[in-house]
């Protein structure tokens, strides 16, 4: 006997990108800085971050994850990968810009 299943909805990347933009706009307003997506070239590698801001000698890096509902294992891994990416970028920036 076939089971009735709710049709699977596809991921809406437009909605997720819009949510990311809203989060970055809120961060910008809350912190009084301009937080914008940025591509960084460091040590011969290119890194994309969802948000980048400079204020004085401080650089802030942001990765935004937007999702509704429980996270799936691959999504949890993506968040962990983003954390590792931010840690690597921060370490490289400290080496390249020790005054910050």
Characterize the overall form.
globular
Q: How would you characterize the largest beta sheet?
A: 3 strands, antiparallel
Number of strands: 3
Q: What's the average pLDDT?
A: 88
Question: What portion of residues is helical?
Answer: 40-55%
Uncertain parts: none
Strand content: 15-25%
Structural topology:
Blueprint: H1 13-31, E1 36-42, E2 45-55, E3 58-62, H2 73-96
Antiparallel strand pairs: 1-2, 2-3
What does this structure look like?
The protein has 100 residues and is of the alpha+beta class. The chain has 2 helices and 3 strands. It has helices spanning 13-31, 73-96, and strands at residues 36-42, 45-55, 58-62. Strands 1-2-3 form a 3-stranded antiparallel beta sheet. Strand 2 and strand 3 (58-62) form a beta hairpin.
Summarize the structure.
By secondary structure, the protein is an alpha+beta fold. Helix content is 43%, strand content 23%. The chain is built from two helices and three strands.
Structural key phrases:
single chain; 100 residues; alpha+beta
């Amino acid at each position: 006997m076939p089971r009735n299943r709710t049709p699977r909805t596809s991921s809406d990347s437009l909605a997720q990108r819009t949510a990311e933009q809203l989060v970055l706009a809120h961060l910008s307003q809350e912190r009084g800085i301009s937080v914008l997506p940025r591509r960084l070239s460091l040590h011969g590698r290119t890194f994309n971050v969802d948000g980048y801001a400079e204020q004085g000698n401080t650089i802030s890096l942001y990765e935004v994850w937007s999702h509704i509902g429980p996270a799936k294992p691959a999504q949890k891994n993506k968040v962990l990968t983003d954390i590792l990416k931010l840690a690597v970028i921060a370490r490289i920036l400290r080496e390249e810009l020790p005054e910050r």
